[in-house]
Amino acid sequence: MKQFTPALAFASIISLVNAHGFVTSPEPRMPGSAMKAACGEQVKVNQESDNYGNIQGELQVASSQSDYNADECDIWLCKGYKFADNKDNIQSYTAGQTVDFKVDIRAPHTGVANVSVVDTSSNSVIGKPLISWDVYASTATGVTSDETSFKVTIPDDLGSQCDTAGDCVLQWYWYAESIDQTYESCVDFSLSGSGSSSGSSGSSSASSSAVSSAASVATSSSIAASEPSSTSSSEVAATSVPVAVQTPSAVPAAQSTFATSVRQSTATAAATAAATASAAGAALPFPTDSAQDVLSWIEALVGNLVGNN
After folding, report:
1. E strands of the chain, at which residues?
2. I want to staple 162 with a disulfide (CB 3.0 to 4.6 A). Which of 43, 77, 168, 299 is the partner?
3. For 99, phi and psi rounded to 5 degrees?
4. Is 215 a domain residue?
């Protein structure tokens, strides 16, 4: 069970006071365990309670915490929010692509603002801001629609600087000069579909390769099945009947057809049938005198065969 400590209460009070503005679309970086390790537990708690708060409010919390590491936190870059906590939240853009932004401002304070591509290794703007306002969230006019809903275009001169996710962010920056408060939101992205999108491209390539291989196998099988065999008819006959069932040469031609048509399964069965037919032929010579003699010979032959079985 969580305990409500005085430090946590203080962080919560500050978060209520400092709720002012944050990007809601595209999905921005959020606090996480990597931020806690670098910026300290109470700074993370402060931002989890209210991510609309400003950097100066974070620094007020951090100043009394022993686990705040200024260098590792790098609080002026994305308010200390870390890429390591947001690896599953990476946008994929291409040069020249238009990106819709939505910002929620809960309390106006006159200042200046812009959205820029920022190099995260140096916390420096690459090129010129993609959009900027000389007067932003004025207390005189109130927040205007073009300050909370607008479009930016991804530059076409970034080269390979932002190909890898984490190297660059789209950073919304609002400095409320009238009260000396700074608000930031960062959107992680990769350019030209690299970065987080590379794993899926690789999977797609692997899948395509597998499909192509399967198609090649299927095609080869179809060709093999459709092409006529070069094997001669005598070779087919020899391979289609087991060697053990080959008809002995002693069997007469008329009986050979009969013996193979019943598909004998062993050499012994074939030899027995041949011997029986041969013996029957020797005991009963074929008559040539009359039709009646032929019929009588056939009856005798059948009787001998039945008797031998």
Report:
1. 21-25, 91-93, 98-105, 111-119, 124-125, 131-136, 149-153, 168-176, 181-191
2. 168
3. -120, 125
4. no
Q: Which domain holds residue 276?
A: 239-308
Q: Domain for residue 207, yes or no?
A: no
Residues 53 and 138 in one domain: yes
Q: CA angle 7-11-15, nearest 5°? A: 170
More confident residue, 123 or 293: 123
- Evaluate the omega torsion of the peptide bond into residue 26 and state whether it is cis, within 30 degrees of 0: yes
Q: What is the CA angle 96-102-106, rounded to 5?
A: 150
Is 205 inside any structural domain? Answer: no
- Rounded Cα distance, 18 and 185, in Å: 15
34 domain residue, yes or no: yes
Q: How do residues 22-72 score in pLDDT, each as one tens digit? A: 999 999 999 999 999 999 999 999 999 999 999 999 999 999 999 999 999
Residue 226 CB-density burial (10 A; 0-12 exposed, 13-18 middle, 19+ buried): exposed
State the burial class of residue 89 (Cβ atoms within 10 Å of its Cβ: 0-12, 13-18, 19+): middle
Distance, in Å, from the CA atom of 174 to the CA atom of 112, rounded to the nearest integer, reads 6
Give the residue with greater pLDDT, 259 vs 18: 18
Q: What Rg value do the Cα atoms of the chain yield, rounded?
A: 45
303 and 184 in one domain?
A: no
Average pLDDT for 14-28:
76
Strand partners, 113: 133, 174
Contact 104, 24 (CB under 8 A): yes
Contact 54, 172 (CB under 8 A): no
Residues 159 and 48 in one domain: yes
**Is the domain of 189 the same as that of 243?**
no
Q: Are residues 254 and 168 in the same domain?
A: no
Task: Classify each residue of 282-295 as buried b or exposed e, where b means 16 or more C-beta atoms within 10 Å of its C-beta.
Answer: eeeeeeeeeeeeee
- Find out whether 138 and 108 touch, Cβ atoms under 8 Å: yes
Give the separation between CA 44 and CA 50, rounded to whole angstroms.
10
Of residues 13 and 67, which shows the higher confidence score?
A: 67
